[in-house]
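Example A, followed by Example B.
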Amino acid sequence: MSDNSEHTELTAAQKSRQGVIYGLAAYLCWGFFPVYFKSVKVVPPLEMVSHRIVWSLAFLLLLITWKGAWPGTIEVLKRPKSLAVLTITTILIATNWLVFIYAISIGEVLQSSLGYFINPLVNVLLGFLFLHERLERPQWISLGLATTGVLYLAIQHGAIPWLSLLLALSFGLYGLIRKMLHVEPLVGLTVETLLLMPVALFYLVHLNQKGTGIFLTHGSTLDILIPMSGVVTAIPLLLFAAAGKKLRLATIGFLQYITPTMHFLLAITLFGETFTHTHLISFMFIWAGLVLYSVHAYRTVRG
């Protein structure tokens, strides 16, 4: 009996380590996203999202063929319930892509950073609400601190940081639903992009007919960078989905502040965005919440 128990614990530990590695890789990739999307900022956000969909699907279909995953993909396409759920995740991830690219294009990397700083704590709350993951007092305090930070920023600027909140909620809900859906990461992402493909392709053809499309009209550098959006988009999403299958949502939330930290540093160093006293106070509340949550998570793991 004890041998079986030890084997089960070892398997769970290995699963957790794999999940952490996948999660770290995904969030590091996303951390460098502002650099990539700044390099293609001449492309309007909606057009860029459409290219992300088209080129992501091309890359994913190659992966599906290479891995022999067509039977599983076709099986999901035949299941109305799975298709209905994936339609919801498709809308969420497309919204997240569009809002993020728009934020980068208007020089609001700090807003994207704020959104993804909030996101880990949104994940904790969603885990509590929908997955019955128990929250202890330090986690509730962490959520309270983050909420205070957002409210302070909104009051001082006289406007709610909608871009930040949309980024946090859309990606938080995407991660929650994908975790609950029993579909392989590669298959799920392929079906999501397939569902988006008709709209994206129609829009790109429309731009081409109007003569306003950027692709193949603005030099070889962009003609290389735009198709790269498929690989840039698909790989971290696949890593994220794989991590989500192996980790608790709260653990994913703990890893997730790697990305906004990188966005924050890029915004105030490489991109020269203004970091005001109001930003500082707001971010300090959110960072305090993250530190409190992280210390609590560490102590819980150590027992």
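Example B, a separate protein, is given below in the same form.
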Amino acid sequence: MTPPSAHDSEPPEPRVLCDARPPADAPPVPAGVPWKPAESGRQPDANLVRLAPGGRVAPHAEADLDVLLYVVSGGGVLGAGTGDEPRPLAEGATVRLPYGSTRSIGAGEDGLTHLTVHRRRPGMRIGRPGEVS
């Protein structure tokens, strides 16, 4: 018997990946990344990130990717480049973080849960010294 080819397989089906909202009676959720896609070859890529009350994502710049950030719950502050005023983040805020921009995130007293969506990063490749891949 011949294994099915990609042309013979069923088309992918839409599916619910996660519910970003914790149940109302749930204990506090620890900080971290409680969800990210596991499928290989996926586009776009995404991460659900929880920051504990007072938690921070240190200032950094993303050199290659635009990132879309959506605040699922909680609130905090978006810090930007040197000299820019911090901007408040509240539930429902959607922010475009253009590649090359410097940004940081600080969670407020209730913590902050946000979803980031961006193009998938290419995998690392190993080559000979000086070889560009």
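On Example B: Residues 67 and 118 are 5 Å apart (CA to CA).
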